[in-house]
Amino acid sequence: MIKLYGSNRSRALRNLWCLKELGVDYERDDRDHVSGEIKTDAYLAINPSGKVPSMTDHTGGGDVEMFECLAINLYLAMTYGKGTLWPDGAVSQADCLQWSMFSATEVEPHTVGALMERIFKPESMRDEAAALKHLEQLPRAFTVLEGVLGKQSYLCGKAFTIADLNVACVAASLHMVQFDFLAFPKVSAWLGACSGRPANQDVVAGNA
Amino acid sequence: MTIKIYGSLVSRATRNLWMLEELGVDYERIDLDWIKQENRSPDYLKINPAGQVPTLIDGDVTLSESLGINLYLAQKFGGGVLWPDDDAGQARCIQWSVWAAGELEPAVYPRVYEFVFKKAKDRDDALIVKLAERTLPLLDLMEGALSASAYLVGDAFSVADLNVAGVMEYLDRSDFDIAQWPKTVAWYETTYGRAANQKVQGERAPVAEAMLKRIVEHSRSEG
Ligand SMILES: N[C@@H](CCC(=O)N[C@@H](CS)C(=O)NCC(=O)O)C(=O)O
Ligand SMILES: N[C@@H](CCC(=O)N[C@@H](CS)C(=O)NCC(=O)O)C(=O)O
């Protein structure tokens, strides 16, 4: 059975979305990441980074234990989503690796940076200049996405894959910081289509 | 068809060159001179619309993202060696690669800018302190993993080690002392010291020195 640690108020949301898309059974450990619940010895034995999410999968006698939300999604897609979230064909599979890394390196550092400075930090410690500096980095990555999505509906072609999920789950948080999508109509429509998928809507609403 | 890798010896492409040398596959390196803006030429933007290096071309596959390229190469050519056979090992290879990209690189890459490109008096000390604070728990995490096994994924070298060491080199290049993490020191020396990487680094050294001189001259001429 797969076990996922983390609540839908944390990055575990991204994995819940993926699990729901795949329709696989899983167990949930909804522990809170702002209390000490992720710093106990028992939890650190599963995830020594002391963060959420983490995932274990002992299906069929295996012993997979891992952290890093985007990596967990790649693993889940490769293992349980062959032909769907993990598309057939070397080119598409390579693209899934590329876009997941792109999300981690070119998108997430800046979305997180902007969220910290505008929302998560206590008001007195926020730095608006730093928030803007992060937001200014994003158009370069979004221009790349806009180009691809001008030619095809999804990042690997005609169908929704883990590439879309791993980029959209990171980019979606930009709505919280009033990022201006005006120059990126294709990205905006694609993001709406991805986020609007029933699997994601269920997870966001807490029904998964 | 021979694999092509775009990017110079003084860029993230060295991570891929190291991987290709480990795998012993033939490849052609195509240097792009970013001072001359060769990475912004219309032809290059067709294969890498962000105008960044590296880009890999392997038949129909055109890929960017250095650490993603390495996962691709390990899976295609390194089965049972750089890419372990078991699910648990593969999961960990992906985990450490994403961790290197999303956690380690943002904490260590900006140091290079401060230490290699700036004069001591121009450095942003507040930033350097902030980066160090972020780096410590990451090194603790590695030390824990390397206390349990010789390499990040069990007792054999894999793409996980290559991808993490390929990013850790920024600490090395910016005089960050990791002596407090002895297992990590030993692992880094063995991993970074591998013959395949030393070959790449040996070719890189004189090119890097010449480039640094050009950068200094370039920034002077820009005022
Ligand atoms: N790179 C990690 C980051 C995980 C992370 O920072 N998780 C947050 C919650 S969303 C957390 O656990 N924070 C609590 C802490 O760091 O103590 C991932 O993508 O999974
Ligand atoms: N996340 C990318 C980053 C690539 C990147 O930033 N490459 C640098 C050289 S190491 C570059 O091309 N810089 C030129 C530019 O940004 O215009 C990767 O890991 O491959």
List keywords for this structure.
heterodimer; A: 208 residues; alpha+beta; Glutaredoxin; Glutathione S-transferase Yfyf (Class Pi), Chain A, domain 2; 2 domains; 4-stranded mixed sheet; 4 strands; B: 223 residues; binds glutathione
Please, what is the average pLDDT of chain B? 95
Summed up, the helix count of chain B is: 8
Strands of the biggest beta sheet of chain A: in what spatial order?
Answer: 2-1-3-4
Helix content of chain A: 40-55%
Write down the overall geometry of chain B.
globular
Question: How many beta-strand segments of chain B?
Answer: 4
- Tally of DSSP β-strands of chain A: 4
- What's the average pLDDT of chain A? 95
One letter per element, helices H and strands E, the order of chain B comes to EHEHEEHHHHHH
Describe the largest sheet of chain B.
Answer: 4 strands, mixed
Cα separation of the termini of chain B:
45 Å
Structural description of this entry:
By secondary structure, chain A is α+β, with helices and mostly antiparallel strands. Chain A has two domains: about 1-80, 3-Layer(aba) Sandwich (Glutaredoxin); about 90-195, Glutathione S-transferase Yfyf (Class Pi), Chain A, domain 2 (Up-down Bundle), CATH 1.20.1050.10. Chain A is built from eight helices and four strands. In chain A, strands 2-1-3-4 form a four-stranded mixed β-sheet, with helices on one face. In chain A, strand 1 (about 1-5), helix 1 (about 10-20) and strand 2 form a beta-alpha-beta unit. The mean pLDDT of chain A is about 95. Chain B is of the alpha+beta class and about 220 residues long. Chain B has two domains: about 5-80, Glutaredoxin (3-Layer(aba) Sandwich); about 85-190, Glutathione S-transferase Yfyf (Class Pi), Chain A, domain 2 (Up-down Bundle), CATH 1.20.1050.10. Chain B has helices at about 15-25, 40-45, 65-75, 85-115, 125-150, 160-175, 180-190, 195-220, and strands at about 5, 25-30, 55-60, 60-65. A four-stranded mixed β-sheet of chain B has the order 2-1-3-4, covered by helices on one side. In chain B, helix 4 packs parallel to helix 6. The termini of chain B are far apart. The model of chain B has no long low-confidence stretch (mean pLDDT about 95). Classes of the chains: A alpha+beta (about 210), B alpha+beta (about 220). The interface of A and B includes residues 78 and 104 of A. The complex binds glutathione (GSH) (2 copies). The site of one glutathione has 11 residues of chain A, from loops.
